[in-house]
Amino acid sequence: MKQVTLMMFGIMFAALCLTGCGKRTSTTKVSEHAGTYTLIAINGNKLPYTPPHEGGAPQVRSSTFTLNADGSFGNTMSYGTPSGQTMSRDFSGNYTRESERFTFYWKGAGMTTATLNGDTLTMNNEGILFAYRK
Q1: Contact, 59 vs 50, CB < 8 A?
Q2: Cα Rg of the chain (Å, integer)
Q3: What tens digit of pLDDT does each residue of 10-63 get?
Q4: What is the b/e burial string over 91-103, where b = at least 16 CB atoms within 10 angstroms of the residue's CB?
Q5: Which residues lie closer than 8 Å to 116 by C-beta, 6 or more apart?
Q6: What is the pTM of this model?
Q7: What domains appear along the chain, each with residue ranges and CATH number?
Q8: Are 41 and 51 in contact (CB under 8 A)?
Q9: 58 near 79, Cβ under 8 Å?
């Protein structure tokens, strides 16, 4: 009888441990925010705008930010060159979301944070606020 009790206890303990090993899910579905957002302002200034940056920064003319439901993102930003031409750069990476807060992990670079309020995604990049609207 003692062996059966110990065996049952062992099975119950193993079952409890395994329930904690499952994939964690967020209470907010990833796909609710998926889509393309267009840059509408930098630090509250309409585009085109040259953001403040130590050592200078190019004039930002436009940008789109695409959040994919699988946790990846893509970003395209167009800049003005000194000759007056427009140059574009593409960026990508992965993100995590906790409620309205996002953390973006850029390929080949660091990370930034953002918040989502309605259809406006506001990213804080080293103190410079980029506001995107879906």
Answers
A1: yes
A2: 22
A3: 333 333 333 344 444 444 554 789 999 999 999 999 999 999 887 778 999 999
A4: bebebebeeeebe
A5: 33, 100, 102
A6: 0.75
A7: 25-133 (2.40.128.300)
A8: no
A9: yes
